[in-house]
Amino acid sequence: MILKKYAFFIVVLIIFSSCSKGDRDSSDGAFGDKKDTKPYKISKDLEAIKEDGVLHAITIYNSTSYFLYRGMPMGFEYELLSRLAKNLGLKLKITIAEDIDDLFDMLNNGKGDLIAYGLTITEPRKNLVSFTENHYVTHQALVQRMPDNWRSLPGYKIDKQLISNTLELINDTVWVRENSSYAERLKNLQNEIGGEIPIEHIEGNITTDKIIRMVVDGEIERTVADYNIASINKTYYPILNIDTRVSFSQRIAWAVRQNSPDLLKAINKWINKEKQSDDYYVIYNKYFKNTRSNRSRIKSDFYSKNSNKISKYDDIIKENASEIGWDWRFLSSQVYQESRFDPKAESWAGATGLIQLMPATAKEVGVSNNYNPEQNIKGGVKYLDRMRDNFETVEDSIQKVKFTLAAFNCGAGHVFDAMRLAEKNGKNPNIWDENVEEYILKLKDKEYYLDDVVRHGFVRGTEPYNYVRDIFLRYDHYKQFIEE
Predict the structure, then answer these.
(1) What integer pLDDT is reported at residue 110 of this predicted model?
(2) DSSP 19-47
(3) If 0-12 CB within 10 Å is exposed, 13-18 middle and 19+ buried, where does residue 259 land?
(4) Parts of the chain belonging to CATH 3.40.190.10
(5) pLDDT at 464
(6) Whole-angstrom distance, CA of residue 60 vs CA of residue 98
(7) For residues 165 and 168, what is the distance between their CA atoms, to the nearest angstrom?
(8) Per the database record, which ranges form the Solute-binding protein family 3/N-terminal domain (predicted)?
(9) What fold does the segment set 313-480 form as a domain?
């Protein structure tokens, strides 16, 4: 490798004064400048979204935006989206794009209302979408591998074997995803330094995380990534060097359709308010700066990027889910709701074990040791089956599951009371959604729990209501990441 250290100050000047429009990237890269006319095929602004009651967001499955860890959906984008949806009074529905190139088409074809992903604000992209206020600022960095024996070498010897300024990229290949703005940046850089940088293109649906891992494994020599993403990877791959900048600072933001000005205004108002809170920066640091948690997560078998596992009890849950005819991922969601997969968990009411059986219930279903995972799950499924038998009049299978979960949580008697109240007030007693669930909530009010059709009195209806809702929402996440 021919070193040209003497030209370093020239390179810095070139980089920070000559970067052309559109050379920035998102956290994983697509350029996205496909059209210069109005690209959207749907008109849906905030009012219509609120009528629908759901915020449909599009993101990418990667190590910082959205993933599953120990049964819990996580990610920078996921946590912020959850807060945004709550702020707007909406339910959240997340759709995963296959790769970066799909994000813009999915948005403008109406498959989502918001791209919740780290997009670099560029002029070409402004023809496609309206950008929100930026979430953070980063820059592109060269990602390369240190020498194998780097720990025993003095710094100057390491420096000799690394590319430390962009002039040294002349005639040295860089591997990047095709059609990404990482690739676009390298093309512009060639013009700026007056020399050829051989570019090898990688398949479009391979994430930046995976490409960086290819550098670690020696499959490729170097790539380009946003510095904050490269920095995350360096925490668990110390052999990486990410010190060489290839761009100036970039604003990273989300995006909405150009014909959604009210949604854009609402999101920007929320972002500006969030940035004044400590929580916002705690969330950022959690995914981009907390090296200890990032390192432990990336090594875990229960990190969805590593395996198709939810918990160490998957095999037990699979075996018992088949007994009741449920998707094992759904039963896993219930177990997480009950105990977060802690077999020693105990509730304030005295329920114990993975699926939280009361002592009397455990005895009733033949469980002698409630802390034994096999016994506890088996007994819990047996009890679920008994609860399901109470709702033979409910024909829809999904609705029947919701009644079963509610009865498991608060007792079948209270669910029967809510069904009778629903029928008395002109609602369908055999549909949970927007019918019986409304009256399970009302059973905390004296006006309703003293009604003559109510036989089991007061109950905190928010508990079974949230129980059913949260299990189904989590199951939606599990289906995104875990194969059946």
Answers:
(1) 93
(2) PPTT----SS-B-----SS--------HH
(3) middle
(4) 46-136+254-284, 137-249
(5) 96
(6) 7
(7) 6
(8) 57-291
(9) Lysozyme (1.10.530)
Residue with tokens 């010897």: 157
Q: What is the pTM of this model?
A: 0.77
**Phi and psi angles of residue 337, each rounded to the nearest 5 degrees, phi first:** -60, -35
Which pLDDT value is given to residue 190?
A: 92
Q: Which residues pair with 346 in a beta bridge?
A: 352
Token pair recorded at residue 132: 């929100």
State the Cα–Cα distance between residues 79 and 73, nearest whole angstrom. 9
- The class of domain 137-249 in CATH terms is alpha beta
> Which SS3 state, helix, strand or coil, does residue 346 take?
strand
Question: 395-408 burial string, b = 16+ CB within 10 Å, else e?
Answer: eeeebbbbbbbbbb
Tokens of 398: 């999904």
Report how far residue 383's alpha carbon sits from residue 338's, in angstroms, rounded to the nearest whole number. 14
Per the CB < 8 A criterion, the answer to whether 98 and 204 are in contact is: no
Which active-site residues does the annotation give?
338
Which residues neighbour 474 within 8 Å (Cβ) at sequence distance 6 or greater? Answer: 71, 73, 333, 336, 337
**β-bridge pairing 91-96 and 54-59:** parallel
Within 13 Å and on the Cβ side, how many CA atoms surround 302?
Answer: 15
- Strand (E) or helix (H) holding 131: strand 130-131
Q: What are the residues whose beta carbons fall under 8 Å from the beta carbon of 99, sequence distance 6 or more?
A: 30, 60, 204, 205
Q: Which two tokens stand for residue 441?
A: 């909530």
Outline which parts of the chain fall under CATH 1.10.530.10: 313-480
Write down the pLDDT at residue 35.
Answer: 41
120, two tokens: 């670099």
How is 74-114 classified by DSSP, letter by letter?
Answer: E-HHHHHHHHHHHHHT-EEEEEE-SSTTHHHHHHHTTS-SE
**Looking at residue 204, what is its pLDDT?**
67
pLDDT value of residue 18: 40
Residue numbers of the chain with a pLDDT score lower than 70: 1-39, 204, 295, 298-299
**Which tens digits make up the pLDDT trace of 291-301?**
777 767 766 77
Fold exhibited by the domain 46-136+254-284: D-Maltodextrin-Binding Protein; domain 2 (3.40.190)
Q: In what helix (H) or strand (E) does residue 225 lie, and over which residues does it extend?
A: strand 222-226
The predicted structure's pLDDT at residue 3: 39
